[in-house]
Amino acid sequence: MAMAKQAVNSSDALTIGAHVRKLRKRQKMTLERLSELTGISVSSLSRIENTQLGMSLEKVELLARAFGASPEELVSRSLGDGVEPVATLPVAPQLIVDRARKRRERQDREISTKYLFEDSPRRALECMSCTIQAISIWDSEFLRHPGEKIIYVMAGDAIVYCQGKPPTILETSDALYMDAYVWHSFVAVNSRPVELLVTYFHGPESRQGLLETRSFTPESWAALQAD
To answer: By its UniProt entry, which PANTHER family does this protein fall under (predicted)?
Structure first.
């Protein structure tokens, strides 16, 4: 019997998103492969699994087909499979003060980082202040990871290389939003270091440490951009 043509309600979408992640890992399928099978972008799939994006009936049908199931099976098994919720609310609201004098500074190549709220494990956001030196972008370390990211420039100017986009200059007080699972790197534009405030969603996959790093050359970056 065909499913009624209506959107999946928000509470069910949370459970289905967790079940999609469970099925994908059970079938040893990458997000990139699932994207190829469904036509849903990698960033949207990541947001579905991390309960950041609602589920339309069309997406349910595409995902079910990719897993070799019917839409009814995907929904019914999700709601009755005992999938653990992606996030649970704490018993009482949290109010946490992060003291500047207690932050630990980490130096990694051209980046000096201080993590905010590092000792608060229940938070859903990762936040850090970064000071980045002026080096060649090709000497920097490129990253990609689960979770959308917002960068705010506190001081200085930065150049941003982001997969699928041309290089972008950010000036003091500029802000940038970046989708999940895209290769990116920042360096200071001139001899003055740039200071950034970086925040990104700390979803279930982020907690598993699925942070990737690599270096690019002008040629390998151009090849990635051409894909």
So the answer is: HTH-TYPE TRANSCRIPTIONAL REGULATOR (PTHR46797), METHYLPHOSPHONATE SYNTHASE (PTHR46797:SF1)
Q: What is the count of structural domains for the chain? A: 2
Stated pTM of the model: 0.60
Summarised one tens digit per residue, pLDDT across range 98-122 is 898 888 888 887 889 998 887 776 6
Burial status of residue 162 (CB atoms within 10 A of its CB: 0-12, 13-18, 19 or more): middle
Structural domain harbouring 219: 100-226
Tell me how far apart the alpha carbons of residues 104 and 196 are, in angstroms, rounded to a whole number.
Answer: 16
* 137/55 Cα distance (integer angstroms): 38
Residues 71 and 167 in one domain: no
- At residue 78, the pLDDT reads 52
Cβ-Cβ contacts under 8 Å for 30 (sequence gap 6 or more): none
CATH of the domain at 190: 2.60.120.10
Query: So what's the pLDDT on residue 89?
Result: 39
Distance CA 73, CA 75 (A): 6
